[in-house]
Design goal:
CATH topology of the largest domain: L,D-transpeptidase catalytic domain-like
Strand content: 25-35%
Structural class: alpha+beta
Oligomer: single chain
Shape: elongated
Number of domains: 4
Distance between the termini: 124 Å
CATH class of the largest domain: Mainly Beta
Number of strands: 22
CATH architecture of the largest domain: Beta Barrel
Helix content: 10-25%
Number of helices: 9
Largest sheet: 11 strands, mixed
Length: about 400
């Protein structure tokens, strides 16, 4: 029987990146839908199927003096009810049972390193082993049944973990430096948060406190959504905090080729379409999504796929520029006689309108007016109307 020398006893071997990677690369060309990802800093093991996290388990990795090596591995063998052999004295053998340091399941990942159960459940969540990965017995038995020989195993050491959970909330965690190998500062944590588009909304004072405490507890920032404007995906994100959806106005306006004026004293932004209050977040400007139509002439919302989709909307008179509104009135206003009005109150057109009226008056004076009357009374009234009209145009 293969000897599990490393799991709970002394060090049988040490692994280096090149050796570990070479082992992980030999998968006989097979693709496995499942993958195990172990983060030593957070003392956790996650089982993925594709990009979906199926399970998350607490673990007990190697202590600082005998750390679990990081790298890319795979499940090489699986065994139920393993026997433990003392690496210091091979005559000391412990068969499967409640006193066996390996518990009731063993999964070899490389050499004498493996994932296994334990007869010391109180050690889970601590840096305690000689390099193997300890798990609660129920957890390791469940994992054992879910993976196969050849399943990839990735072991990392990341004190900062940022994830987007199913409701699009961005959550970050800061873990203690159990191996003393990864110092952190605010900028290094922000680097992990930046791809999620929420750094403008992270309190630096709170972040400094989280680094100092490093308790591994979740800190929720807000909900983050990719933005698409008229079919183009932007780099910035829409971020929802409480009940307010923030949109990065500078990038959206640039995509629309729309000039924006900043009115600092009023705390507003002005475009040809309208005006809206802005929010300055670390020198980046945002608007409430409810104001996007009035300020930018775009409208939309979150799609089922989790994208904040915006599209240009048809312009209404209240959203157009003053010049455009004047043109629209001139094109759509009719006089009582059915002619298109040309005397719109536009200063630039007043002079030409006066000239047009004079020409029309002269033409009216020269024209012959015919009136059909049914009797003398109507004829007299008709003559009176003609006389009055001639007096007006003279």
């Amino acid at each position: 029987m293969w000897k599990k020398l490393f799991a709970a006893g002394g060090i049988g071997l040490m692994l280096f990146g090149g050796v570990a990677n070479a082992a992980a690369g030999d998968t006989n060309g097979q693709a496995y839908p499942e993958k195990i990802v172990i983060n030593l800093a957070s003392r956790s093991l996650a089982l993925y199927k594709g990009d979906e996290k199926l399970k998350l388990y607490p673990i007990g990795p190697g202590k600082a003096s005998t750390p679990t090596p990081v790298g890319y591995y795979k499940i090489l063998s699986k065994e139920i009810n393993p026997t433990w052999i003392d690496p210091g004295d091979e005559r000391n053998v412990i068969p499967s049972g409640k006193n066996n340091p390996l518990g009731y399941r063993w999964m070899q990942i490389y050499g004498n390193y493996g994932i296994h159960g334990t007869n010391k459940p109180e050690s889970i969540g601590k840096f305690v082993s000689n390099g193997c990965i300890r798990m609660f017995e129920n957890d390791v038995e469940t994992l054992f049944d879910l993976v196969r020989v050849g399943t990839p195993v990735e072991i990392t050491y990341n004190r900062v973990v940022v994830e987007k959970i199913p409701d699009n909330s961005v959550v970050y965690y800061v873990y203690p430096d159990g191996y003393g190998r990864q110092p952190l500062n605010k900028e290094s944590v922000m680097k992990w948060l930046r791809p999620f588009g929420v750094t403008d909304f992270v309190s630096e004072d709170l972040l400094a406190a989280k680094i100092r405490i490093a308790d591994g507890q979740p800190t929720y920032v807000g909900k983050s959504y990719n933005i698409r404007v008229n079919g183009k995906v932007l780099q910035g994100k829409a971020v929802k905090i409480d009940d307010l959806m923030y949109l990065p106005v500078t990038e959206i306006a640039a995509t629309l080729n729309l000039p924006v004026e900043v009115k600092k004293e009023e705390g507003t932004l002005q475009t040809d379409f309208g005006e809206a209050v802005y929010y300055n977040k670390k020198n980046n400007l945002y608007i409430n999504a409810d104001d996007a139509r009035a300020l930018l002439a775009v409208d939309g919302g979150v799609t089922r796929g989790g994208i904040y989709d915006l599209a240009s909307v048809a312009k209404t008179p209240s959203e157009e520029t003053p010049t455009a509104r004047v043109g629209a009135i001139a094109e759509n206003t009719e006089t009582n006689d059915g002619n298109i009005a040309t005397n719109v109150d536009n200063p630039a057109d007043k002079e030409s309108n006066v000239d047009a009226e004079k020409v029309k008056a002269k033409e009216d004076k020269k024209s012959k007016i015919e009136i059909h009357v049914a009797g003398d009374k109507d004829a007299k009234e008709g003559k009176a109307r003609i006389k009055n009209k001639q007096q007006r145009v003279n």
